[in-house]
Specification:
The chain is of the alpha/beta class. It has an 8-stranded mixed β-sheet, with helices on both faces. A 7-stranded mixed β-sheet has the order 1-26-25-24-23-22-19, sandwiched between helices. A 5-stranded mixed β-sheet has the order 12-13-16-17-18, covered by helices on one side. The two termini are 15 Å apart. It is built from 18 helices and 26 strands. α6 packs across α9. Helix content is 30%, strand content 23%.
């Protein structure tokens, strides 16, 4: 076994000089950004080591240009008060996975979203609000995802690899122009080759220029050459020999004129610098009639004399250039003037279908939902507003009619109403009832949400993850609390096992090549949290071990452990009352410690 029985680290303090804090949804995502920054800049960055300020604050030290730089991984919560600029950029609509903040300059440098989810269906758009938060403030944003991935969320779905939609990629170019700020896509291959689409260049990793650009922001250097490569990658998604066959044809030959220019990369960077927003579309080249799934027939019944169009063959939202006819229909039977809600009846109107509820099939009930609509509203609003900046925005509630009892007002404390409040001019349902789009409740933030300091399961798991990496062990699986599912890399092979969304999961799996043994662990924030469900935690860990060992034809022995913040005495109690092979405790009083307690 590579791990030692005891680890001790003195608490490390660092000033603000050359200090950059990466605030993340969880510590795993914060450390991932730091790791990728280094991986794509090894020619400039020299890794010195990792220090610890606490169980929830890791300090990565690098030498760059003969100076020491500190990159601190933190989670948004439980670390004390967030800097003003960080909190305000994450509370506007939704939180991204990571925010890079310069402590010395007191400035947010960039935001990131990283996803292992299949970029298909609802997952494509639900994160868009997080991107737009940053761009509105003039802060660059990078979206990192796999080129292709199997869809494991639906057992009935076709299991061939799915790819991001062509309109989704186009959105980043449109947002870059609209907000005069880099909005960058970073696609890369899944390490499991069976999930890759051969039509895409397997050696083209879009993350590299993004992280070189990030380093230029850190060093306050000109990163324009890296931006050009980023936009070249996005252009080639449509026009290169390796393009997917569906991308270019989805928009029709009259579209994408801005992208088709030979000097596109130079043009878009120049236009961003000069705050020029060249419209991607006009009323002549939006040629596809709007045909939203499931409600297309109802739309034409409600508005028989109004023509609606969509940007591409697969655009969920529509637009009409006949707002006056639309208003005339909405006015029927109303006591008030509906047009008073519109910015201008002379301008086009964007129509976005949304829901505020979903059915819980397991319990046979209707429950509130925020995703994906809190992302779709800003996404489709901005896609159309890039070309038609004065357009009205109408939301069409598809789950609310006179026939049901759902109370739209009950949504006003939820985050989806941040998007409704910000973008909608008018909200109506399939019976053309009108609803208020304003909500102060959705913007109220509780101080304790960010400022209370406490240890979580995420801290315990992530701290142990850094120990494994320091010992040269790459985990097969680490379960962040925010993840819906993930892939287990079945080391020492190249095979993978895929958790489904609702699978009962363990927390940690890793292979130790020194004793050729698999280790499976369950993580908890403290002794009380572990002991209260001890038998169930052992069962989950045992199940995870059975999954992996079966996939590997039972070639390797396995050992099971629990890990929590606590004492060796509490660890011994766990061993007395369970079948775990050993227990690991972590603590951070005067110094950070990790201790392995065996039988």
């Amino acid at each position: 076994m590579k791990l030692k029985s005891n680890y001790k680290f003195k608490k490390f303090e660092v000033g603000n000089k050359n200090k950059f804090t990466i605030y993340g949804d969880n510590l795993e995502e914060s450390t991932q950004i730091i790791k990728w920054l280094y991986d794509f800049n090894t020619d400039i960055m020299k890794f010195i080591g990792i220090e610890y300020a606490s169980l929830s604050e890791y300090i990565y030290k690098y030498e760059i240009n003969d100076e020491i730089y500190y990159f601190v991984a933190k989670a948004y919560y439980r670390n004390g008060k967030l800097p003003y600029d960080v909190r305000h950029v994450i509370k506007e609509l939704d939180k991204p996975d990571a925010v890079i903040y310069s402590n010395e300059r007191e400035k947010v440098l960039m935001g990131f979203e990283t996803t292992s989810t299949t970029m298909a269906g609802n997952a494509t758009w639900q994160r868009s609000g997080r991107i737009i938060n940053f761009l509105e403030c003039g802060i660059p944003f990078g979206f990192l995802a796999y080129f292709s991935k199997n869809d494991k969320s639906d057992k009935k779905a076709n299991k061939k690899p799915r790819v991001p939609g062509a309109l989704f990629v186009l959105m980043f170019n449109m947002l870059s122009l609209k907000y005069h700020t880099p909005a960058l896509v970073g696609f890369f291959e899944h390490p499991d080759k069976s999930q890759n689409i051969d039509a895409l260049n397997p050696n083209n990793d879009w993350r590299e220029p993004i992280f070189k650009y990030l380093l230029s922001l850190v060093l306050e250097e000109d990163g324009e050459e890296y931006l050009k490569k980023c936009y070249s990658n996005m252009k080639n998604y449509y026009f290169s020999e390796d393009k997917l066959l569906s991308t270019n044809s989805e928009f029709g030959n009259q579209s994408l004129k801005y992208l088709r220019d030979d000097n596109f990369e130079e043009n878009i960077i120049s236009d961003m610098k000069n705050k020029i927003n060249i419209p991607f579309y006009n009323s002549d080249n939006i040629i596809f009639p709007w045909a939203p799934k499931k409600i297309s027939e109802r739309i034409h019944e409600l508005f028989p004399n109004v023509k609606f169009y969509q940007l591409s063959k697969n655009c969920k939202a529509g637009i009409t250039f006949e707002t006056e006819k639309l208003v005339e229909r909405l006015n029927v039977g109303k006591k008030e003037y509906v047009e008073d809600n519109f910015k201008s009846i002379k301008e086009p109107t964007i129509v976005i279908p949304i829901k505020l509820t979903k059915s819980d099939k397991k319990n046979g009930t209707i429950v509130p939902t925020d995703d994906p609509y809190n992302g779709e509203i800003p996404a489709f609003s901005n896609i159309y507003l890039q070309s038609f900046p004065k357009a009205n925005v109408m939301l069409l509630l598809c789950d609310h009619t006179n026939a049901n009892e759902y109370d739209v007002e009950a949504s006003k404390g939820r985050k989806v109403y941040k998007s409704i409040d910000k973008y909608a001019d008018i909200v109506t349902d399939l019976d053309l009832n009108l609803f208020s789009h304003e909500s102060e409740n959705s913007r109220v933030e509780n101080k304790s949400k960010y400022e209370n300091q406490f240890t979580t399961e995420d801290d315990v798991t992530s701290f142990f993850g850094t120990i494994l990496l320091n010992e040269g062990i790459i985990p097969s699986f680490i379960n962040p609390p925010c993840g819906s599912w993930s892939d287990i890399h079945l080391y020492p092979t190249d095979k993978y096992y895929y958790y489904n969304r609702n699978d009962d999961r363990g927390d940690i799996a890793y292979f130790d090549d020194q004793d050729e043994t698999y280790y499976f662990g369950e993580s908890k924030k403290n002794y009380r949290a572990l002991v209260s469900t001890l038998s169930d935690e052992y069962r989950k860990t045992k199940n995870l071990s059975e999954i992996v060992l079966k996939e590997l034809n039972y070639k390797y022995p396995a050992k099971l452990f629990a890990i929590f913040k606590g004492s060796s005495e509490e660890a011994k109690k766990i061993l007395e009352n369970s079948n775990f092979d050993f227990v690991i405790t972590v603590n951070d009083t005067d110094e950070l410690t990790l201790e392995i307690v065996g039988r």
